[in-house]
Amino acid sequence: MCTTCFRYHLRVKLCRNHVFLSLDEFSTLPLCSGLEDVKHDNELIKFYCRSHDIVGCGDCIVLGHTSCKPEYISDLAKSFKDGDTYKSIAKRLADLEKQKTDCEHEIDKGKYECEKMNDKALKGLRDFRTEINKCLDEAESKLLSEMKMMRKENTVTKAKIEAVLQSFTSELQEVKQMLDTQLYRDNALFINAVNCKSKLTDIEKMYEHSSKDMALKGLKFVRNDQMLALLKSERPVGSLQFCQIECRTKETTKQKFCVGTRVRRHGISSSRIYTSPGTVTKVTDITFTVKWDFRVNDTTYNIADDNTDKLKII
């Protein structure tokens, strides 16, 4: 604390009797031995059983571990901090902390990947919907074009029919006038009737020939029931495929095969199955090397190589 904080600290009633020391004075104080004493059922834990890798008080050792040759913790603790066991535990702790940090990074990465995939899926859906709308617009435009062409053909056909009917009307009117009994009688009427026979025959042939081209074309819209059924289906536009985004860090080959790791490899030679034991002697960022017990040549594996699955840790 600075001087100001120290002064405010003493204003509180519960803190008026607190004693403050300088950093130099604090560094000279001996460590409180009571903090190192760990008890079990009000008895100090003083023994370590190496066979079972547990610690216990006197009662625990007498009742269950007398034949295990227990050792005093005070003897073992003197050099424990600088020993391999403590370093191994500390390394495992550091590795787990690193895995936790990596897992946090993977989770953040997974969140980003989820958002990215979601945006991509949404874009794909929108693009497909646009493509469908474009196809429907083109199909509608094609039908409208056919309707327009048919109306144009009917207009031409109608003009032809009107022209033929006008000619028929004129021809029939002439024949009708020649057969009018008020205008012609007796011999004249007979002569006109004879002449009208051939004229009527010509008119009939002309009408029969023209009637083939005088039909107008009607139209009717027929729905595509297959498309309608597809649109009414459960997923007419498409579906979603879900995939697992791994957010937990996995144990890598490099972590599994460290220097000193004992391994064995199975193989087949001359129709005989054999097992080769060995020891990992070297590990780099991308490879690790195994020295075999009964073979002259060492083997170097790539960490990312699938062949590492053939190795088993002993």
Detailed description of the structure:
- The protein is an alpha+beta fold and 314 residues long.
- The protein is 50% helix and 15% strand.
- Among the domains are: 76 residues, no CATH class; 84 residues; 59 residues, SH3 type barrels.
- It has a 5-stranded antiparallel β-sheet with strand order 8-7-6-5-9, with no helix packed on it.
- Helix 5 packs antiparallel against helix 6.
- The longest helix has 95 residues.
- About 2% of the residues have low confidence.
Helicity, in percent?
Answer: 40-55%
Separate helix tally: 8
What is the rounded distance between the termini? 56 Å
Q: How confident overall, as mean pLDDT?
A: 81
The biggest sheet, with number of strands, parallel, antiparallel or mixed sense and barrel status, is: 5 strands, antiparallel
N-to-C order of helices and strands: HHEEEHEHHHHHEEEEE
**What is the tally of beta strands?**
9
Q: Structural class of the secondary structure composition?
A: alpha+beta
What best-fitting shape do the alpha-carbon axes yield? elongated
| CA gyration radius, whole angstroms | 52 Å
Report the uncertain regions: 31-35
- Oligomer state of the chains in this structure: single chain
**Share of residues in strands:** 15-25%
Sequence of strands across the biggest β-sheet: 8-7-6-5-9
